[in-house]
Write a structure and sequence with these properties.
Blueprint lengths: L5 H13 L11 H13 L6 E4 L15 H11 L4 E6 L4 H9 L5 E4 L4 H13 L4 E2 L17 H11 L4 H10 L7 H15 L4 H10 L4
Parallel strand pairs: 1-2, 2-3, 3-4
Length: 215
């Protein structure tokens, strides 16, 4: 388990104890999680499951993996057979989709009133070689919402939601040294997104993508 909040760790420990999970290790840093997983593989006693949050508060300690997503990306590349459950308050559809489709996350559970109950269900489902996604983010893997939208689109939409004009977005990307940054590229991307989401205008587009949890 990787989570920097002791109270969350205690709740997860209770669930794992209920499920009669024999050996459980808890860490508060993603780097520690990676090192433990690597050492376990070297000792030929690999872990069956990692449960991790996505957000970890920064402190005095430098980290190679400052977030759960960075940890998951590294583990997927090095130990793709490891089962991973995300247990997080994050509910943006685009981020959930990326973790499941690109990094092979087996379950995504949203923290909340029913979080621990769902986590228990998720552990059992993953143990049966199936996938579990909390209902509030289930559309992340639905074919009906399989949108052709990437991180660059999301960035443009975020700037648009802050009230920036297309000219200002172009300049902001240039200032941040992000390419492509031309005005024509911004215009084409936003036109594509308006058509894709069937939005009447920029305000309508921002409202739609916010409703979907993309920004």
């Amino acid at each position: 388990m990787a989570d920097d909040l002791v109270s969350i760790n205690l709740g997860m420990l209770t669930i794992l104890d209920t499920l009669k999970v024999g050996q459980v290790h808890s860490v508060q840093y993603c780097d520690d999680a990676f090192l433990k997983i690597r050492r376990a593989v070297q000792d030929q006693e690999p872990y069956d499951l990692l449960i991790t949050d996505l957000s970890f508060k920064k402190d005095h300690r430098d980290q190679d993996y400052p977030s759960g997503e960075a940890l998951i990306e590294a583990l997927h590349a090095t130990y793709p057979e490891l089962n991973i459950i995300v247990y997080s308050i994050e509910d943006r559809i685009q981020r959930v989709r990326k973790l499941v489709t690109q990094y092979g996350v087996k379950a995504y559970v949203c923290k909340g009133r029913r979080g621990l109950i769902e986590l228990k269900d998720a552990i059992q489902v993953v143990n049966n070689q199936q996938t579990y996604i909390s209902q509030q983010v289930a559309s992340a893997i639905s074919k009906k919402t399989d949108l052709e939208i990437d991180d660059f689109d999301i960035l443009i939409l975020k700037h648009l939601s802050l009230g920036l004009s297309q000219d200002q977005i172009s300049q902001q990307l240039k200032d941040d040294k992000i390419s492509p940054s031309s005005l024509s590229t911004i215009e084409k991307r936003l036109n594509k997104l308006r058509i894709q989401f069937r939005a009447n205008n920029a305000i309508h587009l921002v409202a739609l993508v916010k409703d979907l949890g993309l920004i």
